[in-house]
Design goal:
9 helices, alpha/beta, Rossmann fold, five-stranded parallel sheet
Amino acid sequence: MPLVIGIVGAKGSGKGTFAATLEAVAPVGVHVARVRMSDVLRETLDLWHLPQSRANLQHFSGVMDAEFGSGTLAHAIGHRIASAAADIVVVDGVRWEADRLLIRSFPQNILIAVTADVRVRYERLTQRGENAQESHTTFEQFLEEEQAVSERAIPAIVATADVRITNEGALDAYVEQIRRCCSERIQPLLAQCACVA
């Protein structure tokens, strides 16, 4: 079984950067796979030719839970994690209690929280424009989206994290924090795993 690393944080905090950097700094010979909690939602929206807007992603996850039961998305992602041919699976976007429980259900796991000031996160979000219409989001809309059902559990999950990283400065400083987390927290867990010879 792989080492499963869950990443929790509000939008724009740097979860994707953490996952991408971890792939780059992982020890030689260690294969890292990345799974975003939103992947299944994004794929489904694409099938229906609907925009990958934050509103659509938030609404769709709520519809899935309402129609098929709490934790439907986590269940689907759980299958992806279990079938990943990797030593480490990074799960980007833990935001529901079912997601947290999924991470903790794997024998070797660690939950990492990435935090940043709301203004810093807003500026990052509008500059990157990952989702449809994000680059045109006003600060007021951003704050309103933070109150969506899909975002409300994030602070409570952050409080349960094994590691907490504040990402408010330069990218180089953040990358250095990720490197330190990898050497001090992730590599010792890998050494305990049967997944690395």
